[in-house]
Amino acid sequence: MPEGHRARRRFSQNFLHDPHYVERIVAAIAPHTGQHIVEIGPGLGVLTEKLVAGAGRIQCVEIDRDLAARLRERFTPHELTVIEADALEVDWASLARAASPLRIVGNLPYHISTPLLFALLPAAAQIADQHFMLQREVVDRMVAPPGGKDYGRLSVTLQMRYRMTKLFDVPPGAFTPAPQVTSSVVRMQPRPVDQLPDVDFAAIERVVAAAFGQRRKTLRNALAALVNEASIRAAGVDPGARAETLPVGSFVALAKQAIAQTGSSDR
Q: pTM here?
């Protein structure tokens, strides 16, 4: 760790230092010249250096002004553009439109990981892929299939928009300071437009949020405010089932029934 810098708890700073895992992450990303890459939370620049070497020039988002200054000293403006900001406040849709298709990578701070994943959704159409290192439990939820305790709102929402692949785990000892949890690296590839549900995403989100709002309730009860029992059956779903048993496609079918029942998609 560079002299004069201490990991700041308020930013959930845990700096990757193990060369083995740095190389594995870079190999998974496979940066090439001409690609538009944005790194979230570059920290000490260990991964940044490899990304710059592969792509020639990248952008990064860093909230810590001391680290941002160090990055500007270490890399030339031609190599690295530093966006000094909170990643949750970046206009990702505008950034992606300006440099499409965008590749986004990063070791995401645990406390903002889920909100940031949702914040990136509106930009998905202009994104080539996302490679993130997150807490293992979060990645397990992101890629979980129906039927288990990990499958929930996050699983359905992300799998509807992306092809999700868990790549490998990273142990606490690969970081300084070492976190108390194991991390995992995940690849997220936005689905082509012709593979997306032909229904308003906001309507799907309402159904998903209600269905998982109280996991122990049957869909008959959990969705009572949005869709009646007959419409649940019309979607090909058992009203007595629980949300965690349904594949992604069933939530799309339920959203269509909810729209049909109200006569509006609320667009």
A: 0.90
